[in-house]
């Protein structure tokens, strides 16, 4: 069973602000409830070929994995992929300007679970959707609480 979960939120901040914050993996532990740490394996800033080690907790398990950035269109899209472990995953962030000071951010996770993860896939989809919804609510809360980068 394939896993493909997409969630979205509208953030009352300009697309450049949202994309700059979300595309910086160093910020991930702030807004992803399940991500404990991110360690850069290549020098920042993020770009195609960048690699980062993530440590997360999901469904009661500790997960350590490395993402590689495979696509980056600044202010529009970031795609990261991991191939190791029982659940190879691709994560895509998308940003769409909704006027000058509002952004629709999408978060999509998709992959092909193997082994035990394949059996647990239906439960994983529901848990991922709940987690992603909470994470997008957190990034919205964080960014909307910060002073805007725009000078009024």
Please tag this protein with its features.
Alpha-D-Glucose-1,6-Bisphosphate, Chain A, domain 4, about 40% strand, 7-stranded antiparallel beta sheet, about 150 residues, alpha+beta
Offer a concise description of the structure.
The protein has helices at 15-22, 28-31, 116-119, 121-145, and strands at 3-11, 35-40, 51-58, 61-73, 77-82, 89-97, 103-111. With 152 residues, it is of the alpha+beta class. Strand 4 and strand 5 form a beta hairpin.
Using DSSP, what is the number of strands? 7
Element-level helix/strand string: EHHEEEEEEHH
What is the mean predicted local confidence, pLDDT? 90
- Tell me, what is the CATH class? Alpha Beta
Low-confidence stretches: none
- CATH superfamily membership: START domain
Structural class: alpha+beta
Can you give the helix content as a percent range?
A: 25-40%
The tally of domains stands at 1
- For the biggest β-sheet, the strand order reads 1-7-6-5-4-3-2
The major beta sheet can be summarized as: 7 strands, antiparallel
Blueprint of the fold:
Elements: E1 3-11, H1 15-22, H2 28-31, E2 35-40, E3 51-58, E4 61-73, E5 77-82, E6 89-97, E7 103-111, H3 116-119, H4 121-145
Antiparallel strand pairs: 1-7, 2-3, 3-4, 4-5, 5-6, 6-7
Characterization of the model:
The chain is of the alpha+beta class. It has one domain: START domain (Alpha-D-Glucose-1,6-Bisphosphate, Chain A, domain 4). The chain contains 4 helices and 7 strands; from the N terminus they run βααββββββαα. It has helices spanning 15-22, 28-31, 116-119, 121-145; strands spanning 3-11, 35-40, 51-58, 61-73, 77-82, 89-97, 103-111.
């Amino acid at each position: 069973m394939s896993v493909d979960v997409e969630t979205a939120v509208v953030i009352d901040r300009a697309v450049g602000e949202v994309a700059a914050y979300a595309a910086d993996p160093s910020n991930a532990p702030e807004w992803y409830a399940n991500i404990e740490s991110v360690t850069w394996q290549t020098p920042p800033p993020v770009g195609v070929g960048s690699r980062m080690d993530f440590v997360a907790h999901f469904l009661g398990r500790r997960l350590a994995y490395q993402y590689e950035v495979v696509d980056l269109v600044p202010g529009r899209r970031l795609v990261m992929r991991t191939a190791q472990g029982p659940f190879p995953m691709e994560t895509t962030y998308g940003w769409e300007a909704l006027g000058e000071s509002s952004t629709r951010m999408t978060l999509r996770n998709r992959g092909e679970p193997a082994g035990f993860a394949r059996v647990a896939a239906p439960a994983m989809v529901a848990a991922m959707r709940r987690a992603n919804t909470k994470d997008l609510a957190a990034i919205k809360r964080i960014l909307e609480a910060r002073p805007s980068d725009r000078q009024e």
